[in-house]
Amino acid sequence: MKAYFDNASTTCISPEVLEVMKPYYLEKYGNASTMHQWGVDASEALEKSRESIAKFMKVKPRELVFTGCGTESDNLALKGIAFSTQKKHLITTQIEHPAVLKTAVWLEKQGFDVDYLSVDSQGFVKPETLEKKIRNDTALVSIMTANNEIGTIEPIEELAKITHDHGALFHTDAVQAFGKIPLMLEHVDLLSASAHKLHGPKGIGLLYVKEGTQLTPLLHGGGHEYGLRSATENMPGIVGFAKAVELAEKHMENEAKRQSNLRDKLIKSLESIDDSWLNGPRERLPNNAHFGFDFVEGESLVLRLDANGIAVGTGSACSSHDLMPSHVLLAIGLPPEKAHGSLRLTMSKYTTEEEVDYVIDCVPNVVGDLRKLSPLVRRS
Ligand code: PLP
Question: Is any atom of ligand 1 closer than 6 Å to the C-beta of 280?
């Protein structure tokens, strides 16, 4: 049996999404900036897609900028704001995706002062932690909507309000939350999303930029996307993104319930393995479960489960090639040796109960086998 439990890293494309994309490769392949019929078809599809995603987000179409990915959206938000203001202070958190964290580190090298907020043992940013660090010269606060490793959903409304009360702008990386849980956009000035996390194509993202927000572009050129992202628009990607959002919206409530039930079944079963625990809170992203196991290496778990046809994650999806313990697990207070034995299981609308049961059968055996090989395990 094969079972894909790595949907936080990427998802398969929905057949309906692929279908709407095809004509934009084969027939309607015009450049949306040109005046002939091919171009008109493309530019109409561009604006229709923008309107449809804007409707889902309850924002104005003019406030959406299509980008190449979530990473680019995060870079555009942080660098774009940093280079548009006189203020020199930025705030983010210790548990952000590298697309935000590494951008913040780069901005420090350009002379900005950055504070990285700590989180509690479940990954929550406490409003008072933000209150303590925010200053008169804070330009931007960037806090993710939901964490990609441990599924914590941050109190974005409250954090964004505090930010506005202090005259700063608020950005949220919603790449993992978009289309899975309702978005709270009050007091949010910028939001990043990426299509490939919700059964859309890879290579297309968006940045919501609230009307009136000054942003310096990363790419200069033909002035596409209101001058904020020059480049011929990725039309198959954009129409695919809009279709993926439409499908996600249609199924969001039911899927949130269905996947939460599957998630809780996984949690109940896997946390009953000896010397194991759940990382992150119980109220979390519907599709995410994240466990720690003593005396086991996360990488060995990934490989052994892969040999059983099961795809899982460990640590951050995008940095799993480095063997450092996850910065998120260290930030919630796990010692490095406990942060190493981690397992992330993330589901999608295609995940079945049969697959969950298969994982529940396999994981205890794999953990048991690996522990037999570990010199660290307690033997009675
Ligand atoms: N932000 C978060 C929270 C993510 O999980 C990811 C990808 O895993 C990204 C940003 C980067 O998105 P993309 O792969 O579209 O660049």
Answer: no
pLDDT digit string, tens, across residues 267-306:
999 999 999 999 999 999 999 999 999 999 889 999 999 9
SS3 57: helix
Q: What is the pLDDT of residue 280?
A: 98
Told to judge if 318 belongs to the known catalytic residues of this protein, a careful annotator would answer: yes
pLDDT of residue 16: 98
CA 23 to centroid of chain Cα atoms: 29
Mean pLDDT of 186-193: 97
Domains of the chain: 3-9+252-372 (3.90.1150.10), 15-247 (3.40.640.10)
pLDDT at 317 over 80: no
Cβ of 342 less than 6 Å from ligand 1: no
Q: Could you tell me which of 147, 99, 129 has the C-alpha nearest to residue 280?
A: 147
pLDDT at position 194 over 60: yes
Rounded to a whole number of angstroms, the distance between the first and last alpha carbons of the chain is 35
Ordered DSSP codes for 21-43: HTHHHHT----TTSSSHHHHHHH
Report whether residue 194 contacts ligand 1, using a CB cutoff of 6 Å.
yes
Please report the atom of ligand 1 found closest to the CA of residue 205.
15
145 DSSP 8-state letter: S
Is the pTM higher than 0.85? The answer reads yes
Q: From ligand 1's centre to the CA of 310, what distance in Å? A: 22
Mutation pick for ligand 1 pocket among 10, 71, 147 (CB with most ligand atoms within 8 Å): 71
Instruction: Report how far residue 321's alpha carbon sits from residue 262's, in angstroms, rounded to the nearest whole number.
Output: 29
pLDDT in tens, 9-51: 999 999 999 999 999 999 999 999 999 999 999 999 999 999 9
290 three-class SS: strand
C-alpha distance from residue 116 to each of 25, 160, 202, 277, 322 (Å): 43, 16, 29, 27, 22
Regarding the beta carbon of 313 and ligand 1, being less than 6 Å apart is answered no
CB atoms within 10 A of CB 55: 14
Distance, CA 303 to ligand 1 centroid (Å)?
23
How confident is the model over 230-252, as pLDDT tens digits? 999 999 999 999 999 999 999 99
